[in-house]
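Raw record, unedited: Tyrosine-protein phosphatase
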Amino acid sequence: MNAPTGPLAPLRDAGAVNLRDLGGVRTGDGRRVRTGRLLRCDYPAFAEGPAGADVVARSGLRTVVDLRLEEEIGVECPPWTALGIDHRQVSLVSGRGDSWHAGYARYLVHRPQHVVEAVRLLMELPGPALFHCAAGKDRTGVVAALLLKALDVPDEEVTADYVRTAEVLPTIMTRLLGHEYYQRILARTTLEDQTPTARNIGELLAHLAEAGGAERWLLDHGLPEETLAAFRAAMLE
């Protein structure tokens, strides 16, 4: 794998764990998705501490869309305003006791307007923009899948992007379990239970296909057509 460049490089050097660029993959008609605009991540701890401001400045990061709940933000959140970052919060909720167990279609059924709002923000806001939850796996995975499918990226590429979190999941879980808040949430789960699999994301992709595809689902739930068209024009080489 080539060394990370663009906004990824300083963030990766600062120890970002589950960080990657949505770009670089091919669409169904062979076009390439541009890099350097949309980044997905777990909790962005790289922005904390005395070196945080320098890391963020060198990355060129402009916007962060936080998919976590208010309670999670109360547990930990970088000082985005002081760092000159436009921080937007759109809490995704799956409609069950917790949002850690795979069942991603629930996000599209329970408060779908929140999912569309997160996608719309990422489509419209200038890059580089980063979106994240706590592990960068479930809520982040849903939004990443919708963005990629809206660009007509094949299911196998979406799946490959999703399962990459498995490579760093032990590190993520260790960090989360250092917080009492996440200890309570994860008390009845295991590393195996949390491991992302093709089946997890496949259920979401199947749900979208049954709804007529990601484009149709997004438009039917309020995404403006002009937003989708401008996003495609900006993101496809």
